[in-house]
Amino acid sequence: MSQQKGTVVLAYSGGLDTSCILVWLKEQGYDVIAYMANIGQDEDFGEARKKALALGAKKVFIEDMRKEFVEGFIWPAVQANAIYEDRYLLGTSLARPCIARHQVEIAKKEGAEYVSHGATGKGNDQIRFELTCYALHPKIKIIAPWRMPEFYNRFRGRSDLMEYAKKHGIPVPTTPKNPWSMDENLMHISYEGGILENPKNHAPSGLYVKTKDPTESPNTPDVLEIEFKKGVPIQVTNLKDGSSHHSSLELFLYLNEIAGKHGVGRIDIVENRYIGMKSRGIYETPAGTILYHAHLDIEAFTMDREVRKIKHSLALRFSEQVYNGFWYSPECEFVRSCIENSQKMVQGKVRVSVLKGQVYVLGREAPHSLYNEELVSMDVQGDYEPSDASGFIRINSLRLKEYHRLQSKVKE
Amino acid sequence: MSQQKGTVVLAYSGGLDTSCILVWLKEQGYDVIAYMANIGQDEDFGEARKKALALGAKKVFIEDMRKEFVEGFIWPAVQANAIYEDRYLLGTSLARPCIARHQVEIAKKEGAEYVSHGATGKGNDQIRFELTCYALHPKIKIIAPWRMPEFYNRFRGRSDLMEYAKKHGIPVPTTPKNPWSMDENLMHISYEGGILENPKNHAPSGLYVKTKDPTESPNTPDVLEIEFKKGVPIQVTNLKDGSSHHSSLELFLYLNEIAGKHGVGRIDIVENRYIGMKSRGIYETPAGTILYHAHLDIEAFTMDREVRKIKHSLALRFSEQVYNGFWYSPECEFVRSCIENSQKMVQGKVRVSVLKGQVYVLGREAPHSLYNEELVSMDVQGDYEPSDASGFIRINSLRLKEYHRLQSKVKE
Amino acid sequence: MSQQKGTVVLAYSGGLDTSCILVWLKEQGYDVIAYMANIGQDEDFGEARKKALALGAKKVFIEDMRKEFVEGFIWPAVQANAIYEDRYLLGTSLARPCIARHQVEIAKKEGAEYVSHGATGKGNDQIRFELTCYALHPKIKIIAPWRMPEFYNRFRGRSDLMEYAKKHGIPVPTTPKNPWSMDENLMHISYEGGILENPKNHAPSGLYVKTKDPTESPNTPDVLEIEFKKGVPIQVTNLKDGSSHHSSLELFLYLNEIAGKHGVGRIDIVENRYIGMKSRGIYETPAGTILYHAHLDIEAFTMDREVRKIKHSLALRFSEQVYNGFWYSPECEFVRSCIENSQKMVQGKVRVSVLKGQVYVLGREAPHSLYNEELVSMDVQGDYEPSDASGFIRINSLRLKEYHRLQSKVKE
Amino acid sequence: MSQQKGTVVLAYSGGLDTSCILVWLKEQGYDVIAYMANIGQDEDFGEARKKALALGAKKVFIEDMRKEFVEGFIWPAVQANAIYEDRYLLGTSLARPCIARHQVEIAKKEGAEYVSHGATGKGNDQIRFELTCYALHPKIKIIAPWRMPEFYNRFRGRSDLMEYAKKHGIPVPTTPKNPWSMDENLMHISYEGGILENPKNHAPSGLYVKTKDPTESPNTPDVLEIEFKKGVPIQVTNLKDGSSHHSSLELFLYLNEIAGKHGVGRIDIVENRYIGMKSRGIYETPAGTILYHAHLDIEAFTMDREVRKIKHSLALRFSEQVYNGFWYSPECEFVRSCIENSQKMVQGKVRVSVLKGQVYVLGREAPHSLYNEELVSMDVQGDYEPSDASGFIRINSLRLKEYHRLQSKVKE
Hints:
Chains A, B, C, D: GO terms for molecular function: argininosuccinate synthase activity; ATP binding. Four copies of one chain form a homotetramer. By secondary structure, the first copy, chain A, is an alpha/beta fold. Chain A has two domains: 7-177, Rossmann fold, CATH 3.40.50.620; 182-365, Argininosuccinate synthetase, chain A, domain 2. Chain A has helices at 16-28, 45-54, 66-80, 91-110, 125-136, 149-152, 158-167, 248-261, 286-302, 305-324, 330-342, 373-376, 386-411, and strands at residues 6-11, 30-38, 59-64, 114-116, 141-143, 181-184, 189-192, 222-229, 232-238, 244-245, 266-272, 278-284, 348-355, 358-365. A five-stranded parallel β-sheet of chain A has the order 3-2-1-4-5, with helices on both faces. A five-stranded antiparallel β-sheet of chain A has the order 10-9-8-13-14, with helices on one face. In chain A, helix 4 packs across helix 5 (125-136), helix 8 crosses helix 9 and helix 10 (305-324) runs antiparallel to helix 11. The longest helix of chain A is centred in the last third of the chain and has 26 residues, at 386-411. The first copy, chain A, is elongated. Chain A starts with 5 loop residues before the first strand and ends with a helix. Chains in contact: A-B, A-C, A-D, B-C, B-D, C-D.
């Protein structure tokens, strides 16, 4: 074993990769603190703690950050209608800064000079992790084994890891690995790699974990009433059984349950990584999909057209910042504060029907909306003078007439 | 009857409103040419011709512009992924300039000084009609009865129209009118007004015409392979039965059929009219919805990330221009040419599953894509040096570290 | 005289036009309250008051709103680096909402149902005035004589006004009118109309009022140090004589004096009016021009690159909103609050040299800037690892290489 | 000497740095081809050739690419009104891809596997060089000595280079180096580093090379008429002496001469490098500054308002792409083609007065402009109905009134 190099806080998942990394780091001469974020993934944290200690971790920190994840990261994304490249609801991207923030806090508290993670060298997650770390703790040093030749040349495939594991007493998985990799949290699961790397291949049936296959989901909808205040859901009521959910985490879990039951939130896309390559990802985001639709609706109902347009352009930037790993950046702070500012009056109730993979908005109401039923009515004139529209249209046509004049002259 | 005032080309629908307008215009002293655009709506054009002539139209023009509508208007919207306020696929907005263009052409050919339409004074359609007319024929005069006090004060409701119709031998509808108004074309049907004006009211079952209720649609999907070239669909194959459709109109009609059968394309939204009021609209856009998803996918697969981003910002403007009635404007011409330019390499095949109101992308392939399976692979290093990412991340963190430095100094 | 129609608050300038309007409004049966805003124009307000009363105004309100204009309108524009179509610093646009706000406040206080102004029917100012009035007092009725056929057909030219004036005892100007029209306030003077309508005509020498002809201005510069806090100037020191100015109005007047002395702030442009026509305007904005350059500089020095970019896009919208008359709109409120938010750390001192129509930035300093002299130094390595740049560049080249690969394949 | 490693094409400037690099590369075992781009800098190319050969270059290529630089790089920037962060006209940024393109062409032709340059590891130029190389020749390998520890640790300062030069027979400069570094081409000179790194320091008198000090420049202007076609200058006429210049290069050189004589084009800014740090740069861009103002003017005169706005947003992206080194990228190709498309009708003549560091636009004319003198006239009604503006304003006020209604309700 090499000499003592210092202490590293490792983002530990309990799986084969980070277990090998834990042992490898010790082998390199580091003291290792294992850090696990409970961000809603399906995991036996007690077992994982034992495993980490057995592998030689000096300490193990397991933190339940599900509530913080919902309120501090998912809610701002809901307010923004955040979506990357028109389709991806950013489930993984939102989790990373939440996880990494705690990791550097532990590093600070424990006086560790290093942090480490098991993200690959081609992906977005390495960037999201590390930019968060550098932004919050500029002096931190990062060990990314999958980018280090001495590591990746030694572990060229899963069999190398298995062999290493056996040699070092790391428990190896007994069930065969899926021919793809997945990442789970409260908001979503992503599937990529392996057989999914061929973008033509269909997702195998049985891949999806969080949502039911729509052909097998119920053929009667659940109808939910979702209440928003300041752009954030504060209550969800199932109109079928009258059940109601209020607190952020509980409400989000309930939406996951209903959406999952109806197969809502599956997408299969090719996206552009920050690093510049196209990748194919399959995602399921059950609750997030319902909230995306419901928030779009209440926002459209209560927000001025022009404010909405400007807010939309900010949300485009926000989505890209989050995807690229810049949650903790001056620009993302700025944009978040602007978006939050836009949500003051985004308040009211939206009713949605959830069925067979779809979310249908049925109606909406708000205590203070900009919708004026009398003004818009086809049957009532209201406070509106139709002849004003003639002037409006003619003034708008001035430019077009001038352009026509010019075009005619040019053609002559 | 007043004295001869000249000739007016009236956009005639065959319905009660424009029949009354036809007679009323004659009453005011105009010669009336009735013009009907076959834009894919469900209508007996032969009957309508007879009716118009019976009511005193000097001439009747009925033009089949379905192919032109698909190729000249819907295809550019597909290329753009055009969507207004994140949800509306612009079915009505795209039809208006197509219709109005022919109307002014008839006016020019027939030497008519006037055009007229039956659009209301609060809506978007009046603007879309008239801006097209002014842009293409600046000297045209427009008669918009629903904005003229002498007309709208006389016809304060449907009963006034019915009474007028009876008095002037205009055939009156025998079936009771739906308590909402609707507008149909090849691409979509919109429903608004009446009981839908209360944004809280759910759409009554039985409202939808083009799409089947998802609870009653088949529980087995149709799987389609849609082939694009230059961003435009050139072939649709149903993988279940092997049937294939090529020509623009035929292919579009087939997609309408499949999407309609599976209940695809329903939305219920509150939107912002150009005129500044919020309105509630319910739309069904069957084929358009499939194409929206399929084109998004093939574009993401074949277009560079940064080009995509810029093209997306142009498409936002395009959607707004189209919604507001500015199809024939210098800015829309400019944006269309830029978007078309972006589609040169958008070529390939997308497979989608259509089921219960949903369109699922299953996979895609392209002769020339920017997707590089080896480069992105988790298992192969390919032409990629992982350690480069370390430099990339550290350089990207420079700004964040400086910001942290500044924030720390300020807090001191 | 017609019967009593109610009370109108007239934006009165003291000149021939609004004097005629005052009398004409009385003739139409209105009680007229004359309202004059002291917004920094060169005017004898005492004389104007006498004149208005002599012409029959029921009351005269003269309000000094120079300080409010500077702090409430010019400062937000400085923070935004507001500029319309790359050149116009919005001097008139900013003054209108300030003036109109007080006008409707008087109308409310005095129970007047009407407001009136002398703006033409082709310009921007009518819109800026009226949108402000409608936004702040939706029930207000507006009398715009220059858009009323009974008025503009009666007064077809200046000679008609002169004749009317003579007939009704309105004092007529004794000096011949300039063959252009001008509008002045604290921030700028605009010149347009008359001989300037031919865009090829050069501005006649002698046109400019606020600034010295650069060929006649001093050939030695004044060097100023301008200190900003939260993006707003808080002190100006002349380094030549050591004189210093602090309060907003005083400081702004001093910058006007120095800039005027050196011929700073003249532009001659063709711009696009909101109403859709192109117009030619000549402007001089002395203090505003210095502040534009100085603020740009201190902002670039203290604001993060990406925040700056986003703020810049908001400022583009702000400039357009202000130009078009939407100061009091939900979108402008929103954008102003975002921009203000961006200015928290925009603090420091900029030195500028003012000479012969030019403003040269000489240097800048800030208590907390994002500029890191050591980091950027060519001679010191600082906390920077040059080899990181290799990774940064190679990762950035990935997309470019893929594109090259694709292009080569296509050409084959 | 180490063993033979292959051939490298070195961007050779003739100065101390790249001379040392040339020798050092040979020392490392490379064959070196020296490549000099004549891009308009002040240089004795014959002497430089001799020097390179004397130092051991296997071949020397000197290429005059001044015309290509003007037509292929500066003209697109003029069309775009390209400007980075509101102030920098991109003189260096535009030259880099032009230079690097030829460098990789030589590498291809000569079968060299490597290219090399003398750019520092903290700057933008390394990126602009290398992204061009990778984009046009993905397999190329780049040697950037200033990012290689074995080089930069050996040459820690100028004295190390001097010593190395003496030892290896490299001629050393006899005049003392300016305490800053500079980079020159046809379009501009940049000054940075050394004493300029303190952003508070004023530029020393005597720094500027291309432009005369405005206090010493003539006090009588030159008046130029600049004619544009498709957004590009095709003729410059001096109205004082009637002299006229047509061809791209000749015309550009003449504008440099006139602008330089009058001290036009100096700026002192802090900018944001792509690499994430703020740097201070002083630039002089004489001809470019005149063309920027003239093109802005003719464009505003001939281009529709909304097209201009969209084109402006594209130009912002273009400027950033160019600054960051992405000239040869799919996105920059796309944006250039869109911008070029927008310039079809940008045609006409602008008159400018050049005096004491300033460019004043005096007037403009165009064969086909969108400016309609009659329409905009204050004295003629033209084809304009003033009362239309009432409707236009009232419709525009609808949203504002609704917002006021909402705000009032909330406050209750």
